[in-house]
Amino acid sequence: MKLVFASNNKNKIQEIKHQLPPEIELLSLEDIGCHEEIPETADTIEGNAILKADYVTSRYGYNCFADDTGLEVEALNGEPGVYSARYAGEQKSAEDNMDKLLKALEDSTNRNARFKTVIALNLNGKQNLFTGIVDGTITTEKTGDKGFGYDPIFKPVGLNTTFAQLSLDEKAQLSHRGRAVTQLIDFLKM
């Protein structure tokens, strides 16, 4: 089975390819010749995942899935949420985003947060959504050099390490994206 993953983010593609069974051939946007920036104009994580999946299906005709992820921080009323990738500006710099978040929480004792990923799957004319959530806390400093995005400052509940300190296998078992991808794979096996 061929499925397009509506992303050009090499880190996300690598994480998801690592989880998929060999009978699913994963194609990126680059693989199908989609080089334009897909608009993410929805005001929810679910909405952006649906927009991206629908964009690929309607313009390119492929079965595909798209994800959107947000980091929701309790003390910031759920921010950065749907704006996580652009929290510090349109340049989408992970370092700038983390620095802005750490500064915003500088005087806060409430560092509770959660990562939420929603995957929208368009398969044979039907759409299904899969959601993965991981609760945790925002650390006071960056730790670890693996992963991407906010991984160096997010410590999941039950661990004394950040996502950026975990191997791909460990992160796939614990992460929000890993949980949503597991639901997607289970659905595809039915």
UniProtKB/TrEMBL annotation:
Q: Which Gene3D superfamilies match?
A: 3.90.950.10
Q: Which GO terms describe its cellular component?
A: cytosol
Q: Which cofactor does it need?
A: Mg(2+)
Q: Which GO terms describe its molecular function?
A: dITP diphosphatase activity; ITP diphosphatase activity; metal ion binding; nucleotide binding; ribonucleoside triphosphate phosphatase activity; XTP diphosphatase activity
A biological process (GO) of this protein is:
purine nucleoside triphosphate catabolic process
Which residues does the annotation say bind substrate?
A: S7, N8, N9, K10, N11, K12, T69, F148, G149, Y150, D151, K171, H176, R177
Q: What superkingdom does the record give?
A: Bacteria
Annotated EC: 3.6.1.66
- Uppermost EC category: hydrolase
List the catalytic residues. Answer: D68
- Catalytic reactions on record: ITP + H2O = IMP + diphosphate + H(+); dITP + H2O = dIMP + diphosphate + H(+); XTP + H2O = XMP + diphosphate + H(+)
Q: What does the Swiss-Prot or TrEMBL cofactor note state?
A: Binds 1 Mg(2+) ion per subunit.
* SUPFAM superfamilies named in the record: ITPase-like
Q: Where does Mg(2+) bind?
A: D68
Q: What keywords is this UniProt entry annotated with? A: Hydrolase, Magnesium, Metal-binding, Nucleotide metabolism, Nucleotide-binding
Pfam family of the protein (one) = Ham1p_like
Say which family it is in.
Belongs to the HAM1 NTPase family.
Write out the function statement from the record: Pyrophosphatase that catalyzes the hydrolysis of nucleoside triphosphates to their monophosphate derivatives, with a high preference for the non-canonical purine nucleotides XTP (xanthosine triphosphate), dITP (deoxyinosine triphosphate) and ITP. Seems to function as a house-cleaning enzyme that removes non-canonical purine nucleotides from the nucleotide pool, thus preventing their incorporation into DNA/RNA and avoiding chromosomal lesions.
| Complexes and interactors | Homodimer.
Q: Write down what this protein is called.
A: dITP/XTP pyrophosphatase
Q: Which organism is it from?
A: Flavobacterium cerinum
